[in-house]
Protein: Putative membrane protein
Amino acid sequence: MTGTRDAVFVLGIVCVGLMAGLFAAFAYAVMPGLGQTDDRSFVLAMQRINVVIVNPLFMLLFVGGAGCTVAAAVLYRERRMFWWIVAGAVLYAIGLLITMALNIPLNDRLQAAGDPERIADIHAVRRAFESSWVRWNIARAVVHTAAFAVLVVGAVTR
Structure:
């Protein structure tokens, strides 16, 4: 049981860490870079990213972080690190809620705007998307990074 329990916990930490890194990379590199592009390039790039990011690996990490941390909490309920794992799972869940309630609807509206070559007021479409999406992405990056940090603390709190 200990090997399985440890493997589940490590997988949870890895999934949460990779998601934190993804959202952080968008915050400090991808969005600042796209922010320097013209409106059509920005909208087109984000539309394409939002399509390709929903792939099996992303979904495995996205859902796996939640599943493995909750499973680890159950498996470690009698250990000192239990509350660290619970805190990591709760923080991760908050990040998922931000993604599902705020970032994804913004992505959907951007996609629904249609082909950037045919959008009459591309600047308005970008303006309605960019600042809100960036703000909520930073929030989820911070929350996911905090989840990763407390899970790592839990791993060293035996």
About this structure: The chain has a mean pLDDT of 96. The chain has one domain: 2-156. DSSP finds five helices and no strands in the chain.
